[in-house]
Target: CMP/dCMP-type deaminase domain-containing protein
Amino acid sequence: MTSQAAHPTIEAGDHAAFMEYALEQAQKSPPEPTNYRVGAILLDADTNTIATGYTLELPGNTHAERTCFVKVAEQRNLLEEEIGKTLPKNTVLYTTRILRLGNAIKVVYVGVKEPEKFVGQNVGRARLENAGIKVEHVE
Model:
């Protein structure tokens, strides 16, 4: 994997700017009729970007969020399984992976709510909130 490009400096708490950065990542995703073009950024507690990802960035049908976790594992010279089990292909199990990280992730910001028609009840969000992880929708 190639090294990460320099990340923009974004002021802590500027959720709109972080969402814009995630949208920039999404634009890198190749358009496919069966996939959403999603971008993700993973921040440390000091709001420094530690990984970015976008749909189909890595071989296979990789989700943006999984790409972030794979990059963090590589940066830290870990097997991906050491930061959680191989990420399944749906958001409920992305939630499981976040929960397995203990208190490493405290807030999840989302730019688009899952459509009720497409997803139904957002069980993943409820699990995160029940575990004390804030889920904030940035409009």
Remarks:
- The chain has one domain: 15-137.
- Confidence is low (pLDDT under 50) at residues 84-92.
- The domain at 15-137 is CATH 3.40.140.10 (Cytidine Deaminase; domain 2).
- The longest helix spans residues 15-27.
